[in-house]
Amino acid sequence: MAEPKSAPLTAELYDYVLAHNPPLEPALQELADVTRERFPDAAGMLSAPEQAALLAFLVRLIGARQVVEVGTFTGFATLAMARALPADGTLTACDVSEEWTAYGRDAWAKAGVADRIRLRIAPALETLRAMPTEPHLDLVYLDADKGGYIAYWEELVPRLRPGGLLVADNVLYHGEVTDPAATGPALAIREFNDHVLEDARTDAVLLAVADGVTLARKRYPRAPRSAAAAAPQQPPPRRPTAGGGRGPLTATADSSFTVSWWPSGQTAGADDSAIGRSSSKVVPQGRQRYS
To answer: Which residue has the higher pLDDT, 5 or 77?
Structure first.
């Protein structure tokens, strides 16, 4: 069993992490406070402050303009992402609760980003299936009912542009994913994690951030390679100098190169091959550096 390298996340260390992340903007802090006050039993569904910072960072990092959120609650993560969008960006937020999202509507309006957010109160699968089927989404945040994760994934991945990101929350599910006898949401997350791992359409990493976050990037389609493109390309030969240097690079059958070196003060001549053999290196193709 692998030994964890991460430090135990004590309350003191967590405060340090938050202190070295971008602080919550007043509108975000107010919405988080209101959510905990009005819905104390459900406040655990709020995304963590460091997740809000991460989502905003990712939106800016990839220049996202089309974002989808599945599972909005009171709109905390929605607000973080909308604030990071450009003025012409659009975030489609999917939820089934008018009561919870009403607090989000107020916060979005106060923050001046309501025009970037399209709230859809309906089962998320209905909303997703009504979207254009061609790849057009830049970023997706998945934080809804765990039993629906695989179905949401299958609707979203085809609509995600190559290079686009899908971020899934709660992929450790309070640590219960390690239990082979898991049931309910924990079992659903175990199955989702396995599904993502086996999906050849994406590259994904599972990170121990908050309750576990998966970042999945949709791969670019591979274009068919022509015979000419498939042929190994040999770099141009390099000649040594009077001060010593490198000789020609010779391709070998295993796609490596033999690099010949001459001692300082010698130049290439009739005995090049003998000298080269005595001081040659084999360098894997693609790792050779040219000066």
So the answer is: 77
